[in-house]
Fold Protein nucleotidyltransferase YdiU.
Amino acid sequence: MLQPLDKALFQNSFVEQMRGEASMDQSPRQVPGYHYSRVLPTPVADPQLLAWSEEVAAFLGLERPPERGPAVDALAGNLVTETMKPFAARYGGHQFGNWAGQLGDGRAMSLGELMATDGTPWEIQLKGAGPTPYSRRADGRAVLRSSVREFLCSEAMHHLGVPTTRALSLVRTGDEVVRDMFYDGNARPEPGAVVARVAPTFVRFGNFQILAAHGEKDNLQALADYVIRRYYPELGAPSPAVYVQWLEEVCRRTAVMIAHWQSVGFVHGVMNTDNMSILGLTIDYGPYGWLEPYDPDWTPNTTDFGGRRYAFGQQPRVALWNLMMLAQALIPLVEDVQTLRAALDQYVATLNETQHRLMLRKLGLTAQTAAEEDAALLGALPEALAEAEADMTLFFRHLSHATPSLISHPAIEEAVLQELLEAVSYMDAPEKHQKLRQWLGQYAARLRQETAAPEEIRAGMLAANPKYVLRNYLAQQAIEAAETGDLTLLNRLMLVLKTPFDEQPEHDELAAKRPDWAREKPGSATLSCSS
Ligand code: AMP
Ligand code: MG
C-alpha cells in the first residue's frame, strides 16, 4: 500500500549510531569530533512539485502527491515530520588534487531512511534546503537549472544500468537564488529548487578523510564499522583484515562504476574525493556532460579547463588516485599498510576486466578468439573515433544496426560505410575518416567469426548501446523551458530516458546529432561548479 511522504515512518540509523553535535546551531563553522550535525531545513516561499519519479516512489512505497500540500512541503524542507531527524554530514575532501579540509553537506541534508519494498533502508536527502554548519560562505540553496540536471541525469543513468544515486522529486521553491554562473561578474537571480535524492547512504570517501586528517581514530573506526555492517554485511564482523577486504570491495565497485561511465560517454566533471560514494555510486551531479564528438580530453567543466584533470579520458586514473586517498585515510585501522596497497590492485584488475567485457558487448563480440587480437582491435577504436569526431552514442547505435549487413557481405559495401560515417561524424574531411574506415574493415572481419545469427548479434548490441542519452543541449533546453513554466520537454525526456535502448521512433529527434548552434553554447557545452 502506498502512503504519502508526510505520513511515512522514518528511521534514523546514521543519527542514532554515529556521533552528532547536539546543538542545532547552523552557523558556518568547523565541527571537529563529530560525524554530523543535526539541522533543520529553512522554509521556502511556495513549494510546488515539478517532477516525480514513479519508479523510485513505488520502490519506497510512496504515493504521488498533488502539486502542493504536506508531502511537497516535506520535499522542500517546509515540513519536518515527527520521525524525521534531519542531519548534515561532516566530510572533507581533495578538490582538484588539493586537500581542502572540512567541506560537508553545505546544502544537502538527510531526513532519515525509509524502508523500501524489498526491505532495505534508503536515505532521503534534500539538496538545496538551506544552510548548514558546512555551508561556508554559500547559501545552502540550489537553482532549478542544476536541480533539473541532477534529477534527469541520475534517473537516466540508472536506466542505462550505471550504478548511481536516484532522484525522487524535483520541487520548485518559489524563491529566487542569485548565481554567477560563470564567475564572470554576471550574477543574476534564478528560480530555486530542491531535489530529493535517494541512496542507501550518501557517505563519501571524504567522510573518512576528514576523520583521519583530524586524528579522530574512534570516529573513523565507528564510521567504517557502520558502513561495513550495513552495506557490506557479507564481509563479516569488522576487524583489521576486514577493513582491507572492504577497501578491496570499494575498489571493485568504483571500477565497475567507472567502466560504465566510460562505456556510455559520461563525464562527471568534478571527481573530487568528496564526490566519490563509498558504495561506488555516481553521486553529486554538477557540471557533468555527455561525450558527443568522441574526445578523451573533453570536459564540460569550465573550472577545469586549465588542467583538464577530470576530462573523459582521465576518469579511470583519477578514480584510482581518489581510492589511494581513501586508503590513506584507512591506515589507522589496519595493521600492515602494505595490505592496503595490495587492495588497491583490485581497482585496475576490475576496471580492465569490466571495460573489456562491456566493450565486447557493445561491439557484439564474444570472448572466443585470441584475446590479444581483440585487445588490439578494441584499443585502436578510441583514436579512430576521435580523429573522425564521431558521436559516441550514435556511432555504437548505428554500428549495431549495420551489423547484419557487415556480416553478410564479404567486403563492406561503400554505401553502408558512407552512410554510417555521415550519420555519426561531426567532421566533413574524408581524410579524417580514414582510420575509422580501416577499423571498420577489421571489425567486420572479426564480426564474421562470430557464430550467432546476425539478427541475434544486432539485438544484443541494441540492448548494449543506448539510442538516447541526456545530451547536454537537451538538458539545457528542458531547463530553459522549465524556467518559464513549460515542463513538456522535461516530462518527455523523463519518459524517453526510461527505456534508452528502445527505438521509440516518435522521439527520433531526441537522438539526433548535436546541432551546430549547441556547440559552444553555455549550459550546453560548458558548465561551471556554480549551481
Ligand atoms: P560540490 O562541488 O557540489 O561537490 O560542493 C563542494 C562543497 O561545497 C560541498 O561541501 C557542498 O556542500 C558545498 N556547496 C556547494 N554549493 C553550495 C551552496 N550553494 N551552499 C552551501 N554549500 C555549498
Ligand atoms: Mg559534492
The first strand starts at residue 20 and ends at 21. The longest helix spans residues 337-362. The chain has three domains: 5-203, 206-360, 365-462.
